[in-house]
Structures are given as C-alpha cells and as structure tokens.
Amino acid sequence: MDLVPALEESLKQPLKSVLGPATAKVMAEHLGLHTAGDLLHHYPRRYEERGQLTHLADLPMDEHVTVVAQVADARLHTFASAKAPRGKGQRLEVTITDGSGRLQLVFFGAGVHKPHKELLPGTRAMFAGKVSVFNRRLQLAHPAYELLRGDGEETVETWAGALIPIYPATAKLESWKIGKAVQTVLPSAREALDPLPESLREGRGLLPLPEALLKIHRPHTKADIADARARLKWDEAFVLQVALARRRHADSQLPAVPRTPRPDGILAAFDDRLPFTLTEGQRKVSKEIFDDLATDHPMHRLLQGEVGSGKTLVALRAMLAVVDAGGQAAMLAPTEVLAQQHHRSITEMMGELAEGGMLGGAEHATKVTLLTGSMGAAARRHALLDLATGEAGVVIGTHALIEDKVQFHDLGLVVVDEQHRFGVEQRDALRGKGRQPPHLLVMTATPIPRTVAMTVFGDLENSVLDQLPAGRSPIASHVVPAADKPHFLARAWERVREEVENGHQAYVVCPRIGDEEDDPKKAGKQKSPEDEAEKRPPLAVLDVAAHLGEGPLQGLRVEVLHGRMHPDDKDAVMRRFAAGDTDVLVATTVIEVGVNVPNATAMVIMDADRFGVSQLHQLRGRVGRGSAPGLCLLVTEMPEASAARQRLNAVAATLDGFELSRIDLEQRREGDVLGQAQSGARSSLRVLAVIEDEEVIAEARQEAAALVAADPELQHLPGLRTALDALLDEEREQYLDKG
Q1: What is the DSSP string of 290-309?
Q2: C-alpha distances in angstroms, 146 versus 24, 69, 163, 178, 703?
Q3: pTM value surpassing 0.70
Q4: What tens digit of pLDDT does each residue of 389-435 get?
Q5: Which of the 8 DSSP states describes residue 469?
Q6: Which of 45, 400, 615, 721 would bridge 611 by S-S if both were Cys, CB 3.0 to 4.6 A apart?
C-alpha cells in the first residue's frame, strides 16, 4: 500500500515546477489545470492529419480556432494612416488554403516583418486566432503560427507521428504550446494509478490507463485514438457511477418510517371523488411510489412527466397516503407564485377533504397549509402552529419551509417540485426536519434523457409519466421569421386577436423585464448599425406590452407579469388572468412552470432564439390545457441558416419532450454533470458524451452497483479510491452527500 502514494507523487507535481511560473499561471487561470495529472487529463479536442487539412469552409465565427494549412500567396501593402501619414503604414495579407476553402490572414505595422520572411507560398503551418469577418470575408488578424518544417531535432520530435493533436486552447495559450507542455509531463503517465478493477478491464478488453494516456496524446494511428478514448470514457463513466452507487448504498442503510395508506382513509375518499380515471401511466408510477413508501428505508425517487401529464395528482396521492399513515407531507415549490398555485389547485382537487377541523369538513379531512416568506405575521404564526401540532397533514411552501423556526410534528414525505431550481442545501435542510429521514419525491417537467437521469440524478430511482391524460389538446407550433417576413409577425398578432374574439386568452413571453439599469460601462461605447442588430438587447416585457396595447392589440385587456413585482401584485394579476378578466398576459418566464389556465390557447414567444430548447417546450406546455387546441408562435429575427433557427424548427416539429431534451443536450453539451447540473460550466466529463455514450453509462452503472454491493468501502481498490477523491473534490462531495 505504501508504494501507491509514491507512484502518484509525480502526477501531483504542481505545473509551476514542471513548466515554469508563467505558463503554469495561464494554465491555472484559463484552463483550470494545476498539476501534471490535470494536464495529462486535458485531452486533445481533435487531431489533424499531416496530409489532410481543416475545413476552412466551416470555421465558426468569433471562436478561437487552430487550423493547419498551406500558404497560397502573401502580399505586402503600404498605406497612409493617422499613425503613418506618409504612406509608410504596412499591411501583410497572407492567403492560406486547405483545398476546401481559403482564409485571409492579416498582419500590421512592425508585426509584418517576421511573417513576411517566414510565410512564403507553399509553406505549411498551424495558425491560431479568432475568426472575424472583414469586407464579407473570413479572416484571422495577427494569428499566432507554428511552421511545420519537419526538420530540426525539436520539430521532428514534437510532430512525430502523422496525427497532430489539437487541444482545447485559449487566446493566451495556443494549442501547440499546450502540446509541448503535455510532452514534458507525458513520461509521468506511466505512473498513473489505474482506477478500473483488473477483472473489469480485462473482461472488456480495455487498455491499461498509462497506455491510454500515451495513445490519446501521441497516437500513431486512428485506431490508437479510438482505443484510448474507449478506455478513458469507461474511467469517467465508472468512477462517476461508483460515487453514485455509494450514495445509494449509504441511503439504503438509513432508517425511515414505513407509510402505508389505510384501505378506508383519506386516499380512498380522494380517489372516490376524482371525476376521471387515472391513466395507465399514473397507476404504474403510483404503485412504484407506494411500494417505496412501505419500506423501512427512505424513498429517493425522481418523477419525470411531460408538462400536463398529471404529476401533481400522482404526488398528491402519495402525500395523502402518508397522511393516512399518520404522517405529514410537505411540497416545496421554487417560487411563491407556484406555491400559491399548488395550494389553490390541491385545495380544489381535495374539496371538503382539505377542510380538516372545519365545519363541513369530510370525515377523513386534513388541513392543507400554505407557508411562504411574504405571509403576514399572524397568518405565519397560525401556519407554524398547524405544522408543529400535526393539524396540517399537507403543507405547501417555498424555501420558507426550511427555516430553523419551522417544526413539523411528524414529517414523512417531502415532494420537491422542479428540482433544478432547488438547491441541494435546501433539500438537505428539509431532510433534517423529520425524526427519521423522510421519504423524498423529486418532480420535474423537464424531460431528462435516460443517461442524464443515470448521471445527474443517479442517486434517485427514476419514474416516467409519458402519456397525456385524455382531454388535453394538441398544440400547433410555428416559427415566425420577423426579420425575413415582417408580415408573418403582423399575422401573429391577428391570430392572437382571433383567439380572444373566440373567448380565449393568450400569453406573450419576453426574455427581459425592461426596467433594468443600463450598464454605464457599456453605454459609452459607440456601435456600428450591424453590431446593434446583432447584439440588440432582448425584447422586454414592459416595452412589448406598451407597444401591443397602443398598436396591434389595441382595445384588448393587456397586463404584465414578471419576477420583480410584489408577490401580492403578482398573485392579483394571475387571479385576474385565471378568472378571464385579462385577455393577454405579457410575461417573463415566471409562467414557465405550473401556471394552469385552461382557457389560454395561444402563446407568442418573442426572441424565441434566446431561450433553450427545454425551456421553450416548458413554456409551450402552458397552452392547450383545456379542450380547445393550442397555438405557439416562436418569433425570431435570426437568419434561416443559423443554428438558432434550426433549434426553433426542432421545437416546432415535435411535441415530444424527451426527443427535444436530447436535442437540447447535444447542442449545449453536458455542462458539469456533477454539481452544476444546469449551468453549462466546464464539464467534468472530458471524453464521455452523455447522449452518445448511453451504453457505456448503463453498463458502468451495473458494474458499479455490483462492485459497491460487494465492497462498499472499496478496500481492495486503492486506484479507484484515488480517482474518486479527485472527482469528488470538496464541492462535488457535498453535492452528492446532499443530493
């Protein structure tokens, strides 16, 4: 065992001592790399072949790129300018080609001398810089470059092998400099501890880790790259799944009070009241939940359901089962608007069963209490008393439920609505409110592809509600290209008028509120008209509402709703809209989750390209909730060929949230799957792609579960323990602990 730390030492060496302070500083600040081991795990993004060149034709705008190409011609121009009035200004224009396209390089001033001597026609080199457009042509201004001569000791050594690795780079550090730094630490790869158990590695024919690291950084053939990536994907998937399996194992050791409903209790009375029968899916998922609630360790279940699939009903039945068994159930909503709304809809669904302790309450009735931060002192005292005495069987609230003052009589179940808006610390604090850990049900209306559920929510069992209840209407979705076809936008407002004339209501959604302070730093800069069009601020609720009220929707009752309004005002606006006293609600995404107005049939989303795919799907789910068909219009000024338009076309083409969530993920990449589940931060997954590598993740999950069941402390696997420590640094460890 003592050998292990010694072996690992060279990988823990700070880059400062290996590469020198200047390079190490840039690597730490811009790439988050601190040790030799970090750098070894900074894998090439792709590889260039000496004989084959980057497609200059498909270069992305405004991105830092590295290309390998040949100089076609180079011309030196002189010109007059403010700095060089006598026509002494110099500009070197170099055209490079790769067979697929041409790209202009530009050097100015004193910077022209070296490239003028070196970049002769026929020379091949690697060029790195930011792609911009000048006179409608792509160009790189003052790119860094490295000649590919193929002679001299160092160059031959560095570019040995026909495949040139291209690393994820930054403006401060070009790919080839990263490549040279990697060559410096590569010898220590031989000492890398292998986290995979030998039996697993051999059973699946995977390379040992040191060999995989050598091959990913210095491949001789494409097969080397494929073998190395296959091995490194397994590492990432397996170490992550072991972390999650240990979580599940630890959870299964916790005690909980089993909660079984009485055959003649409040749940049975509630089911008798329902004016419709449960769908097949609702029955199946309810059974999974009730089976979990009946065990003596805490349920940890994720309930995914399409917008409108009846998740709230399934959750309410679980809550009533716990009330039947003598416990209390708490539902946590991310916003006050939502908490109030859940409270309203649950009280309506339960009728006299929600009137416990009141005249006219049914025999098995309980009390349904609301607790939010903005309640008055008297109402709040009353609510706290209901919780502490157990008078309230069902409690609905925002994170006000988590404050220290809040005491429950016997908390048996916590339902968390919209997990991704709800911090881990909050879930943890609520768990501490039960005498024993309460059962946990997490609901989300954002469909999550199976593999993401296995990684982000890997410590939860997964239930999916994928059929819509009878009586829900289809939603027609169309993209409205406002810039190319302004008359389409005029027609969109006519459609809204028609819906209102037919007795329905409409939403108009904007990305911004409109009363934000302008940033004085930005205000000073003069911008060109093209720049303005490209970078104009997103449309704002207050501006759009004013424009519609005076123009296209004049005469209709238009109101505004956004997150910075006082909670009472928000609630009043929602009530008027729900009661049909408002025709058109112009809102931000506060309406994204849980707002239920069956009479609202149309939605116009302004600047739809500024929203993510899943968010658009969520928003669209607010219409078509009644018997009349829904209409969703996605307004954008983005050109036909842009990626943003393709994203909107995908949303318009399907109502299948799971399909859309895959598209969303493919476009956004995974974000950091641990911890920053939603933020798009730098991914902790380097070669594993959550969507494409579904099989690897599923198999790794099985292997990890079997391994942890046999050896929860991983006593026989020092390499795996080291890898886990590296993955679960402080913040992530906490995340998993509280997940």
Answers
A1: HHHHTSSS--EEEEEE-TTS
A2: 21, 11, 16, 13, 45
A3: no
A4: 999 999 999 888 888 788 999 999 999 886 555 555 666 676 778 77
A5: P
A6: 615
